[in-house]
Amino acid sequence: MTTKPAATSSHADEYAFPRALPKPPPKPFGMQQEPFASEIRSVLRQRFARRTDALVAGEGYLCHDTRNRVGWLVPDCIIAFGVDPEAIRRRNGYVISEVGRLPDFVLEIASESTGRADFTRKRAGYARYGVAEYWRFDASGGGYHDLPLAGDALVDGAYQPIALRHEADGVIRGHSAVLELDLCWDAGRLRFYDPVAGRYLNNLDEAENRADEAEAEARRLRDLLRRLQSR
Questions:
Q1: Counting beta carbons within 10 angstroms of the beta carbon of residue 66, is it exposed (0 to 12), middle (13 to 18) or buried (19 or more)?
Q2: What pLDDT, on a 0 to 100 scale, did the predictor assign at position 93?
Q3: Is the pLDDT score of 119 beyond 50?
Q4: Whole-angstrom Cα distance, residue 145 to residue 118?
């Protein structure tokens, strides 16, 4: 059974009138993970768009409190439910003692300069912060991380690996109980599969194609209506 240590809200006044945290240091030019991170956050924001209590974010700090900066981390993607996402964005970071709730999900994306830290130091850090699920994605297939795809669930304060399936077509698949989605390493891309609907969530290219198709269909119907009205 997954357990989460209780979070305390000791800085309620500060969170009610937040001062933005400093921006994390800029990443080295040409970091490999940013295009993947942008797409992943976009897909997941669309997935949870109807939930006003859902945060899907990245590039801000995660910390217990602001009294010191020891151990602060900057997730590529962080998700939390039952929170005020706008307040967290204004704060420019997820301060657990202020939010009063632990994060539900963190994902790190491998790069040459950060890959080893993701499955060593950061893994231990996210466990200390009580993140319910911690996932790692390596587009290179494991050249920067220990594995192409890996997930951990917090059990009694420690991470336990989430089972993965290696399918005949090369897809590596694991299930996120938190997101109720399968995470799939597919030819160097991370895709999300809805097992209830029996389909993948649209990535950016597919969403754009669907929008183009919808617009083309709308134009066709407008033209048809005009022809009918002119008779």
A1: middle
A2: 95
A3: yes
A4: 7
Residues 111/79, Cβ–Cβ less than 8 Å? no
For residue 208, CA distances in Å to 41, 179, 211 come to: 16, 24, 5
Residues whose CB is less than 8 angstroms from the CB of residue 195 and which lie 6 or more positions away in sequence, other chains included: 175, 180, 181, 182
E strand segments, 65-219: 77-81, 93-95, 105-109, 133-137, 149-155, 158-161, 164-166, 172-176, 181-186, 189-194, 199-200
According to CATH, the topology of domain 12-200 is tt1808, chain A (3.90.1570)
- Tell me the C-alpha distance between 6 and 12, whole Å: 16
Cross-strand bridge partners of residue 137 = 109, 149
For residues 191 and 182, give the distance between their C-alpha atoms in angstroms, rounded to a whole number.
Answer: 8
Taking Cα atoms as reference points, which of 32, 33, 35, 55 lies closest to residue 45?
Answer: 55
- Beta-strand pair 199-200/181-186: unpaired
Helix/strand/coil for 199: strand
Dihedral sign computed on CA atoms, order 62, 67, 69, 71? negative
Residue whose structure tokens are 């649209």: 202
**What is the rounded average pLDDT of the residues 42-57?**
97
Per-residue pLDDT at 213 exceeds 50: no
- Residue boundaries of the structural domains of the chain: 12-200, 202-231
Of the chain, the percentage scoring pLDDT greater than 90 comes to: 66
Return d(Cα 212, Cα 181) in angstroms, integer.
Answer: 27
- Asked if residue 110 lies in contact with residue 145, where contact means CB atoms within 8 angstroms, the answer is yes
The whole-angstrom separation of Cα 13 and Cα 29 is 38
